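Researcher: Structure prediction, please.
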Amino acid sequence: MKKTRKSENMTANCASITCNFGVCQNCKHSCCQDAKPPLTKERMTIITEYLRDHEKAASNVFARSGYSFPSVDSDEFCVFYDKTTKVCQVHKAKPETCRAGPITFDINRATRKVEWFLKTRELCPFAGKLLNDPKKLADHLAFAKEEIMRLICGLDPEALETILARDEPQTFKIGEDFLPKSVLTKFSFE
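Model: Predicted structure follows.
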């Protein structure tokens, strides 16, 4: 019996909800340039296993500056992004914020809520497609919330603070939820 890895378990859900290569491959923008998606230790393990299992070269693929993220090349593209095919080389194991995209988040300390934002359709054609289909937007938002909450819970306080300090231009708020008590306590938001 084949052993199933975490990355394989997460793949089916991601592929059924978030994969829209037809839009992403034809996009004039690139979410994979200057993005530096945050990585938990668990996600780095998943990506490392994925690279090993798929016999992909893997040296110096992670960096850290306040938080861990995939290394970038001289043009600031994610090391996992293939500029020729415009496809992520670790798509099936990619970071939570990449899986959640074009939905992003912020934390409002005053309200103790995580706020959900969607990139504008001018920045992200996939966001435009989601806006045109309320059911797909609702499904993707539910999936994105799970991914981002997994990320938030898996980060250390320094990493989360660094991420929250980054600006997310060209987004607009689409919702908010109370943070779980465990997150409020872990990050001293109480």
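Model: Residues 17 and 140 are 6 Å apart (CA to CA).
Researcher: Thanks, that helps.
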